[in-house]
Design goal:
Layout: H1 2-10, H2 21-34, H3 36-49, H4 61-65
Helix pairs in contact: 1-3, 2-3
């Protein structure tokens, strides 16, 4: 939690951190699934576009909930492809001999 507080404060986003226990638990989960840098970057964009300066960390929770999970170790999630992967290969020149204008 402290890295999130420190980074938001460093970027000038000073807010109240008073929340209910359930909000704290949710924030811990969000940090675990999104990462501190992702949350802070999002908060900074929201902070800049807010009509009035946010006063509570709870202001950011709905937006943070909508962020996609950050893959473990910074790797993108992969999915299996049936038939295996076949890298692209240029077709032979003969494929262009009867060009139909496609």
């Amino acid at each position: 939690m402290q890295p999130l507080i420190d980074e938001m404060t460093r970027r000038g986003m000073r807010v109240s951190w008073q929340m209910q226990t359930a909000d704290w638990k949710e924030l811990v989960d969000l940090i675990g699934t999104r990462s501190v840098p992702v949350l802070v970057d999002h908060a900074e964009r929201v902070w800049r576009s807010a009509k009035t300066e946010p006063y509570s960390i709870r202001y950011f929770l709905p937006g943070w909930r909508g962020l996609p999970d950050t893959p473990a170790e910074g790797r993108p999630p992969l999915r299996a492809v049936s038939g295996g992967h076949v890298p692209f290969q240029c077709p032979p020149a003969s494929a262009y001999e009867n060009d139909l204008g496609f």
